[in-house]
Design goal:
By secondary structure, the protein is mainly beta. The chain has one domain: Immunoglobulin-like, CATH 2.60.40. Helices cover about 5% and strands about 50% of the residues.
Length: about 100
């Protein structure tokens, strides 16, 4: 089983995005199914998602609830291929844009 984590940085404020809801979902034939939901900690991180098998996943960041600009939420789809890997999905957020990448 693989581990999944994230780190959200608020580029407008120049600090971690604390208290943002992040939802991890897996794709199945009948659509997306929530695996877990968590909230970013004081460092803007979520490290408490359960271990997951290979598959198509999506992290949905509830940026509207956090109160940051134009995007009400940011969906980030990704694929887990390694059965025992670690997948880190950072989000760099500003009021009118965002960026993500596969971290380490």
């Amino acid at each position: 089983m693989s581990t999944v984590s994230t780190h959200v940085l608020d580029l407008e404020k120049g600090r971690p995005a604390v208290g943002m809801v992040v939802r991890l979902s897996i794709w199945a034939e009948d659509g997306w199914h929530t695996v877990a939901e968590s909230v970013t900690d004081n460092n803007g991180r979520v490290t408490s998602f359960p271990e997951v098998p290979p598959g198509r996943y999506r992290m949905a960041f509830e940026t509207g609830e956090y109160g940051n600009g134009f995007y009400p939420y940011v969906p980030v789809p990704f694929v887990i291929t390694e059965p025992d890997g670690h997948y880190h999905v950072p989000l760099l957020l500003s009021p009118y844009g965002y960026s993500t990448y596969r971290g380490s």
